[in-house]
Amino acid sequence: MSGRPSPLEEPVGELSLKGRHFYNLAHFSKREVESLLEAAFEFKRGGGGLPLAGKSVALLFFDPSLRTRASMEVAIHQLGGQAVVLQPGQGIWDLEFEEGAVMDGSRPEHVKDAAAVLSRYVSAVCVRAFPKLQNWEEDKRDKVLKGFLQHSRVPVINLESCWFHPCQALADLMTLREKVGSLEGKKVVLSWACHPKPLPMAVPNSFALMASQFGCQLTIARPPEYALDPDLVELVRRNMEQFGLKFRETTSMEEALEDAEAVYPKSWGSLAFYGRWEAEKAVRGRYRTWIVDQEQMNRARAACFMHCLPIRRNVEATDGVIDGPQSLILQQAENRLHTEKAVLSALL
Amino acid sequence: MSGRPSPLEEPVGELSLKGRHFYNLAHFSKREVESLLEAAFEFKRGGGGLPLAGKSVALLFFDPSLRTRASMEVAIHQLGGQAVVLQPGQGIWDLEFEEGAVMDGSRPEHVKDAAAVLSRYVSAVCVRAFPKLQNWEEDKRDKVLKGFLQHSRVPVINLESCWFHPCQALADLMTLREKVGSLEGKKVVLSWACHPKPLPMAVPNSFALMASQFGCQLTIARPPEYALDPDLVELVRRNMEQFGLKFRETTSMEEALEDAEAVYPKSWGSLAFYGRWEAEKAVRGRYRTWIVDQEQMNRARAACFMHCLPIRRNVEATDGVIDGPQSLILQQAENRLHTEKAVLSALL
Amino acid sequence: MSGRPSPLEEPVGELSLKGRHFYNLAHFSKREVESLLEAAFEFKRGGGGLPLAGKSVALLFFDPSLRTRASMEVAIHQLGGQAVVLQPGQGIWDLEFEEGAVMDGSRPEHVKDAAAVLSRYVSAVCVRAFPKLQNWEEDKRDKVLKGFLQHSRVPVINLESCWFHPCQALADLMTLREKVGSLEGKKVVLSWACHPKPLPMAVPNSFALMASQFGCQLTIARPPEYALDPDLVELVRRNMEQFGLKFRETTSMEEALEDAEAVYPKSWGSLAFYGRWEAEKAVRGRYRTWIVDQEQMNRARAACFMHCLPIRRNVEATDGVIDGPQSLILQQAENRLHTEKAVLSALL
Asked: Domain A168-333, CATH 3.40.50.1370 — does that match?
């Protein structure tokens, strides 16, 4: 990895929102994020116009999607634009990402050319590319998104990469704002949850960054093996210090939930066992009780229940909680649409 | 299955067409169907407007499609709306359909969430999901469509389920109306035809229901092993009794065709051998003569030839008949577009 | 093959551009091509209008695509129309192409029906279908495109077939015109290049035909085993004779490049080894030096570097050349958009 700047340390651009990339919500100042939120609320009230009239936007899905794809397609259309959906390996060419590669293998096109060509046709390139979950040192380079950020001449919007899911974080922020008003000092719990598979960390990463940037009293509950990336945790800690808050981690979901105002269960894979699922599976068997049920919710009586979806019902949380009155999951999903419109309008 | 209401017995909703689901054409009264037909004829004459302006419609294809997909995409666009095409398992998450499932298997998202989320983005959800053809007791629950009907908060349009293909039936009705005027008392033959594979029964089911609801003298010709579902046949029989007509089944295509005004060959699998294709194949070998050729058509001199397509040329019917002057197949296909516009405009 | 007219000898239609197929650029007179170019330049200057308003266009991709798909989708939208993307075998039915086939195999629908049905929904059918690369006698029938040309009742646009890639050739022509003005007498080199796979010949075929039709002093550089189809080469020769030019082939890239004004490296498979890649691979090992690097470019000091993309970087040409000041690859890619708009507007 050797000297490449990590995605976490990326310098914040000096540009206005127009023309900028949307890779990591934390690259935007609080004032900038507030302006996005303001626009999102205006869209939710039915405001709008057609700022994308005559413009096309490419949506590249290297990985599956329901909410992101449907909400982006609808957002682009409602703003007057055209969504062009492309699925590499399924109808479009597989891409090479290594700089200087001698391309005599199985990948026919370099991201350098794909990004530059798309920039001639469309006004923004939106990309989803999950980690391969074999090697964190490799995944943390986030090479698909990085390739497009480097070679696209139009704004790139991250639809979930190895590191970040900024569209989800912005929708989560909007939902919290609707529910609890200012986030400052509000106790919010991000809790690891059980799941039959090791999952990526983009959602918890982006949620933790967002919550800490906006002054939440964030607690992360997780089994010992499930720490998030230490550099990211350090950033979260520093963000919270600016509000005079102390970041807490605990291995007890029960303890964390007490008096929380929002509970966000989310599963992710263990960095300690990255790429070794058989070994992790043995450990994970001990954590089947990491499910949010009504008993847990009662510890946080007024708390709202959040999730980015898709959710494993009766594994991450029970049907009763997911469908109960504290659940904000559909509001979060709907806010994806409004916040994406805000991002598209601001950048394009 | 135990006490669940069967799709056949679904109560007819008391709502106006606006906001209703379009799952089974038989759930609509004759007066309601006539209003759809009237709108379809108006669209065919070039009338229209943009009743879907600003609206998006999701098209979920769990199974392949040419006509349905192309005609729906074009219909939605010509009405001013946006079609969002999603293919579960091919770019979008696989779905779980069992109520209360502990989701620790391979399906990451429940239809409950998918349907509720899509309802926040789009104005209608259109779904195609074929039977698995392993177990009729299982298939007849029609669980994919049922899942969306139950959990969607916007109208669901059935693009062919285990039981029904109401869009095809409406286009078939429009085509018959163009050709023979009132359907009452007109002799119409639905004939089983040969095919290299066991096929679903949605098209014959919906055609038989529609023909009987509109007073055709319907005859079904089929080999002994190829009865349609007995509950459905009973409904057809009762529909016809209301017109003072007697439903006929015969094992002789020749006999059935005599003096028919319309011939609709269609292949389907045997309920007696459901899920046991090897066994069925041995039986089916005896029915290679179930092909509509010119000799058969001559038995029904003035008859029109109908098929929903795709058709196995020179297996279900000969090239000569399919491409001959009696064939209505392209008219049927075109009427898909006009009737789908009528349905979309009425429901949304 | 027996008496079928070859795609090369297809008679030029007597129709105006309106309603014509766009299968092979060489089927259009120079005057007709000039009118397309003129429209393309007008689109590039920002002119336009919405000639496709209310119209839908089907895009059938039997094979992968990035530029073609994205540029066509954007072109159609910018002209006011709707693109309906269909991928046979991936969501739509597989097609049968043999006339009179007894369809008891694995292909459920005949092109005859698919083309006729689509003609009822859309205003043009655009088709991409690569050769199978097993048998040139079979591939040269170009049966997928031929099937649509025969059975569609609306214009068919070839998005790359076994024989031709007319959209690419038109964009290449536009790019050359921008760079060198009139093509007459300009020395242009089409050079075979190394590649890890045998590739189709549609791009070199269409480039050679176009260059010769417009009076270039065309030279083809290639190893001995890599002759293009002899009938095509004969046509190129005759085209050039009409300008008093002599067509040249050489087995030395170095020699060919001297004083060239444009260099178009492109890989293709050997007709001598068609369908026998293992055998061809052994031979090809000798031609690893067929790469365009800066040293080669220096032989053609003022030359522009062209490629249709995707390009195998550091195999067909070096990064330095591809990204250097002589490279026109992004201009070519952009001109796909403008020329496709010209074709769509002229034909529909």
From this structure: yes
DSSP state of B273: G
Taking the CA atoms of chain C, what radius of gyration do you get in angstroms?
A: 20
Residue range C29-55: average pLDDT? 95
Each residue's pLDDT tens digit, C148-188: 999 999 999 999 999 999 999 999 999 999 999 999 999 99
The whole-model pTM stands at: 0.95
Closest CA of chain C from B75, distance in Å? 9
Report chain A residues whose CB lies below 8 A from the CB of B122.
70, 74
Yes or no: say if B81 and B92 are a contact pair by the CB < 8 Å rule.
no
Q: How many CB atoms neighbour CB C237 within 10 A?
A: 16
List where CATH 3.40.50.1370 sits in chain A.
25-164+335-347, 168-333
Cα separation of B316 and B192, whole Å? Answer: 9
Strand ranges across the sheet with C56-61: C82-86, C56-61, C124-128, C156-158
* ipTM confidence: 0.94
Where in chain B do CATH 3.40.50.1370 domains reside? 7-164+336-347, 168-333
> What's the CATH code, domain B7-164+336-347?
3.40.50.1370
Domain C25-164+336-347 top-level CATH class? alpha beta
Q: What is the mean pLDDT of residues B163-185?
A: 98
CB contact under 8 A, B90 and C93: no
Which sign does the torsion angle of CA C333, C338, C341, C347 carry? negative
Decide: helix, strand or coil at residue A188. Answer: strand
Q: What's the DSSP call for residue C286?
A: G
Q: Between A1 and C328, name the one with better pLDDT.
A: C328
List every span in chain C annotated with CATH 3.40.50.1370. 25-164+336-347, 168-333
Residue in chain C closest to B73 (alpha carbons) equals C84
d(CA A121, CA A134) in angstroms, rounded, equals: 35
Which parts of A214-322 fold into alpha helices (H)?
Answer: 230-241, 253-257, 277-284, 294-298, 319-322
Report whether C271 contacts C199 (CB < 8 A). Answer: no
Helix (H, G, I), strand (E, B) or coil at B313: strand
- Give the pair of three-digit tokens for residue B336: 């898909």
Going by C-alpha positions, the residue among A139, A253, A136 that lies closest to residue A194 is A253
More confident residue, A15 or B331: B331
List residues in chain C touching B: CB distance below 8 A.
54, 56, 58, 82, 84, 86, 90-93, 96, 100-105, 108-110, 112-114, 116-118, 120-122
Sign of CA dihedral A294, A300, A301, A307: negative
Determine the residue among B63, B74, B322 to mutate to test chain C binding: the one whose Cβ has the most chain C Cβ atoms within 10 Å: B74
Q: What does the pLDDT look like over A11-57, one tens digit per residue?
A: 444 447 999 999 999 999 999 999 999 999 999 999 988 999 999 99
At the top level of CATH, which class does the domain A25-164+335-347 belong to? alpha beta
